[in-house]
Amino acid sequence: MNESIRQVGYIGLGIMGAAMASNLAKAGFALTVWNRTRSKCKPFAKQGATVADSPADLAAKGPDVICLNVTDTADVEQVLFGDDGVVAGAKPGLIVVDHSTISPMATREFACKLAGHDITLVDAPVSGGDVGAREGTLSIMVGGPDDAVQRLQPMFEAVGKTISHLGESGTGQACKACNQIAVVCNLMGVCEAMAMAKKTGLDVSKMLEAIAGGAAGSWQLANLGPRIAKGDFDPGFMIDLVLKDLGIVDDTARQQRLPLAGTSTAEGYFRAVAAAGGGKLGTQAMAKALENLGAVDLK
Amino acid sequence: MNESIRQVGYIGLGIMGAAMASNLAKAGFALTVWNRTRSKCKPFAKQGATVADSPADLAAKGPDVICLNVTDTADVEQVLFGDDGVVAGAKPGLIVVDHSTISPMATREFACKLAGHDITLVDAPVSGGDVGAREGTLSIMVGGPDDAVQRLQPMFEAVGKTISHLGESGTGQACKACNQIAVVCNLMGVCEAMAMAKKTGLDVSKMLEAIAGGAAGSWQLANLGPRIAKGDFDPGFMIDLVLKDLGIVDDTARQQRLPLAGTSTAEGYFRAVAAAGGGKLGTQAMAKALENLGAVDLK
């Protein structure tokens, strides 16, 4: 069980997955890849990766670990348990690392089902965006059994910088939910502060500079505030995806009977922007919700 | 008009005012002080400051500048325009620096009225708390005419580190309102993330460490998160005072027809804690609002 990991399967070569898989290859792991849109496998094939025909085929090739980087809970379920899914081809002892952001409750269910096949699931959602994925500086929030997590450490170090093992299965996803709560409330504070600045005739950029270094300071303010000020709404992280994540937060909060009034308010702003056609914009386009209410033009 | 400032009057020797006046004295400014509770003048008298009998008396002694550090809009009005107020004793050419956090609209009115007496008002609310005041590292958000603000620069440098001149009269107060908006929304994100962590069985401190370095990071999370985790609700900044500041934000937003749903939600949490007797606790006791809803014990 404690031998080092060499063979890694990678499922899901979107922006995040491709960058992370690329860093694994650079670190010397031997890759087998599969992606729903097959063309995305090509750059990896050129660099010597094996391309599998299906998740089951990939699993049957006997990797030590399979990483998943897909969009939502339903995608993870399909890739693991569907026809031609990982379970259909896997050998006992496999570790599945799920880098997707999905439901903590579903994660615990999937871990139980996989354990019945002698497969260990480790949830390991990430934060840090496409830049962090490319530069290998992601924060990785890990949930799963100690021995598997220890074995995975060299892989995690190849793709991330802050690696936090929170506890048993599902705790990585629960931590990611906490992360998204803090992110969206911070961004809401930035957008409302900027709306107030504009309405009261302040130079919005000067206001951001004046408050950035004190108790109002945050990553969101420092990084997204200036983009909002110059009307740059290109995505680092898309509104459609944060709404997906907030759906997970909502589901978890509902099951726990946990009122999250601030997070719900932020979600309302995102929904307003998405409803107006802004779902593919970056999260900083939350500022447009204040425009849409007729309040203020942040440009 | 451009000669350097030597004689400074200080009105309001509370926690913030006393620390800031003390730093002015250390920097070589000659102080005359007045405080409603006269005993707070004693430490300054011992160090050579003159003690005035009233704001009018203080103004009559002819300082170049009078600094105010009182609680609310009504206090500033009383100290300036009341019987025995500054205006009753002031000589033409006086500059009044208001370090209090008060209404931006009222500030503009006060500036107009003072101009009729050849007195210049500069609004200069601060952020950085009692620690920043003692260490002289405050952020100062300044509104007022260029020439007066330039003349005041050596004074500001004696009490603060980040000195931002936002524009004309009232813009310092407007910027402080923006600052408080961002602060309370960030804190709300921290409290809701911690509630989610507790409810889903995470180690709350581990969660804070896992997310602090990424897109969820903020001053509020780094500084107040750990205090909440260990049940330390002692005030840096009291809930009663943030509610006073949010009253100013509300008034301004109402006049500007600006909807601030996130800020209002945060204010609701603070009100719940204050209603339960927690007004003298630090702002981080917002976390108790989630307890009071029966949601979660954050201790």
UniProtKB/TrEMBL annotation, chains A, B:
One annotated GO molecular function: oxidoreductase activity
Residue ranges occupied by any 3-hydroxyisobutyrate dehydrogenase-like NAD-binding domain in the UniProt entry: 170-290
SUPFAM superfamilies listed in its UniProt record: 6-phosphogluconate dehydrogenase C-terminal domain-like, NAD(P)-binding Rossmann-fold domains
Documented EC number(s): 1.1.-.-
Signal peptide from the UniProt entry: none
Keyword ATP-binding listed: no
6-phosphogluconate dehydrogenase NADP-binding domain mapped to chain residues: 7-167
Keyword DNA repair: no
Protein name as annotated: NAD(P)-dependent oxidoreductase
Organism whose genome encodes this protein: Natronomicrosphaera hydrolytica
